[in-house]
């Protein structure tokens, strides 16, 4: 039955599409597949490359005899005339190894000179290419297919050819979309997705997670978006290989900018060689085939071939690989891009990305194909054409049926892709039914021993989008609680509505046996305007609270950092306009010291002098807090009535104002606090990237200001390297003040600019990081400055990317002599925002 439907799909799809297809496999003389072979029509620039299994799939325009060339470094170039007389023609070929005869020094030198002259002519023409038009609009079709298979334990056969072969049953993912793309020079895109279908393997019970966010202590929502870093192309910017730019910023592929082989510094990073000169049959253009050879194998550089038209000095096509050391997720990555002159402008019409990922015992082979059509140039602009919304999905984009896709799809899909689409379509309605979702929930809701002890017990109803979570015993037994052993429990209830509004209720309860004290906290959140993160929250409780929640590790958990707090508060957060976030919070609390508690002996041994509880008179405080944060020209995506934040290239400004309100609900305080902060990230291309922040503040009124309301500065950990954009590394203790203060932080990542150019050491893939910070506190006449530098090493475990580093920091301040100390740090990568924490 499966075979019947596959054949039926092939017959129908072939009748709808005009392309003819030549497909097959390329092997060597040992009958092993050869990935990376260029398969093309001889004397043209049109072609494809073989995938990880040595397979190729090339679309042809008509029935005729084509001279098909097969070309690969280390293999003998082969040209075979193949007669295309039916819709799908299969041709397998076995290539022979070939040792190329070394040319004379004189001939080789002439070829290099010609290649340099061609590249210089391309550099001179870059400005003309950048100013061909003011804007354009086109249609964009995208398809991405991933195939995940178990790989055998086969050793590498040679330096040129990686013989990893995917075998065994494959799991597949297939995504296609159709969009309207708008572009404005020099580098602004706006894209509207008209249709998209994600044919994830639904038989494996995988579901796409929706966007979730919370605020925590931040005024800006912290988004949790399920992303697959292996599917890099979501928006057109993700795969925009515009070689006419000096640097290509493609963070989904390489976290470092990639140097263009025709950029102003091309000769500092590349060698060039003339591989061939030929005249294209259809146009008569004289084509230079230029080899691009990177000088530094560990840097973010290309290797491959440019096809350049003589006298016009434009790229007609290119095939380029990216140095694997520059990519966090991809084992190898090849891009092919074809250009065509339309209305006197040279624009990309076809892009193809072939890449592979090694994921433990699996190998993932992927192919992304992008076709552009129906170009129009220099259109009259509307204000919203190029605003901060860079990508929007139409409300009907996810409901298009198979007939729509058959009519809109401009390319021929492979048989495996068509079969997979049919299978997923046939079960989609079933897996969205209440009965099926209920069956999944029954399996999920089954309680196990590990749920009770370690993971927590969860119940969910997918159809109603409700969930309940109860904390496990592991977190309920609180051996190191305030006052000694405590036993507690807690949980969370969430409900999401069809309009993306959400309710969340959380609670925590614990009991201390030494002091016989019961403590509790409860919160209620209602997200009423999800597209603008509009949220109202109500919280209350009687608990032990931190005096400062950002302290050294020992300082945070020492008993000197705790007070008893009986409180109730109400808050409201919202994005007022794009990029401007506002928060207002009104709270009432009764605060008491914990010096009357019986403390465990172990806490005194562990925390030492930090364990002494703060002593103060009990007081009542009513507090109102306003926070505003502005991101200039913040970019974002709208998808399914929810907003995904991309960020901004401009500085970020933040204002905080707190007022202790006297006499309100018997409040005993009276103060006003204000703080200003500015921060930014700067990309310096090859030289790395920098991040900085500056903040200053003061209490403008301190008529009745208690110690707990002071401004605190985090004390440093002895060996742990903390976030250098929020804390100092060699601050002896936690300082506080009620007077003016000033802080600044700076960190620079060289991103291989230095380490990648040192022979042998560059193979270790270490990266140099350096930074500085300063602190001035007026009332104690204290000033502190420090410098640090270190080496970091990046790792990937499955889909998580992180790095560890060893740093040396030195300081100079008002009270101590210069000192040095080594520290160890760790950071994690956010694959959605493509950013590190620092």
TrEMBL record:
It holds the Pfam family CarbopepD_reg_2. Gene3D superfamilies: Carboxypeptidase-like, regulatory domain. Residues 112-139 form a coiled coil. Keywords: Coiled coil. It comes from the Bacteria. The keyword Transmembrane does not apply. InterPro entries: CarboxyPept-like_regulatory, DUF5686. This is Carboxypeptidase-like regulatory domain-containing protein. It comes from Putridiphycobacter roseus.
